[in-house]
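Hey, resending since the last one bounced:
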Amino acid sequence: MRWTRIIAASATAMLCHASFAFAQDSGAGVTGISRSFNPAISANALFDAVYADTHDDHDDDDDHDDEADHGHGASDESGMRVQEVELQLSAVVDAYLKADLLLAFPDGEGVELEEGFVTTQSLPAGLQLKAGRFLAAMGHHNTLHAHQYPFLNAPLVNGHVLGDEGLAEDGLSLSWLTPLPWFLELTGQVLDGRSELFASPEDEDLLYLGHARSFWDVGENWTLDLGGSYATGTNPQGKTSSLLGAHGTIQWRDLDSWGRRVIWRGEYLRADHGQIGGGDEEEGGGYTSLEAQIARRWWLQGRYDRMGLPGDEEDWRTSVLVGFIPSEFSALRLQFDRRAESGETSNVVSLQLNVTMGSHPAHRY
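The structure tokens again:
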């Protein structure tokens, strides 16, 4: 009888061990429910300290630059603050759909849905469909979140032309990866037009956007990325607004050492707020930047951006940034801005700490 109990106990222990091993291999938890489809969760936190040699006298100034109030970029007013916290959840829903949810907490207060969309995974012929709220494919910078910005603030033209929150819309997006020997992706989007630029008075008109992007390996060390965008829709005055954008990136990377890099970026945006071709009100601008990885953990960067190409606002800004990047999960960046606005020049010094926790999705190129 004693040996029977010993054998039974041993068999029970072996069965429990095998069950636990199977649960680990299959991704199941102690409840027996698989963790395979649980969302990957990440959080990004941005903290900044700013010194500006200007006074906050914009309350009665209707012409104050929208970009200065951008909810996701660095502040241009002296002080210390939580710039933004962003929570991202990403999961494979099933064999056909993937879902992404991004919640932003600007200034560490309140919450807003920055993006929330589903993407197909198994359409034929290189097609992919996206539905929900997402950053529209207008140029390059508009598709980035605050923790992905190459500099601490968005370019002037993005704030002037696309508004405080950028061009984030509800709608559908269909992209096609063409079968050409080089990377060429064509994207068409039908959007609700909820942004400041395309908020039609009837709330019934839609925004239509097209985007093309090509990517080439130019030799062993060089890559070239070029893109163009065009959008049209009805504005709050009941007229037709149009947007035109072009962007490019050239990157050199040393493959024979620790991988030092040099990146040049350029982008141009132009908006026509009247009838297409009527030229009732046009504004445009762009930026050019150079980023150099001068050591394993150190970056030195410069950017020049300008408005008034075309338009009456001839604002400009020069930015210099030094970044210490210990890993892909943290960054400490110091930036100096010298800006001319409405004939007055100001200087801003900003220090930003960027921290990532949890699963870390890859950044855009």
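The chain is about 10% helix and 50% strand.

Sorry for the duplicate.
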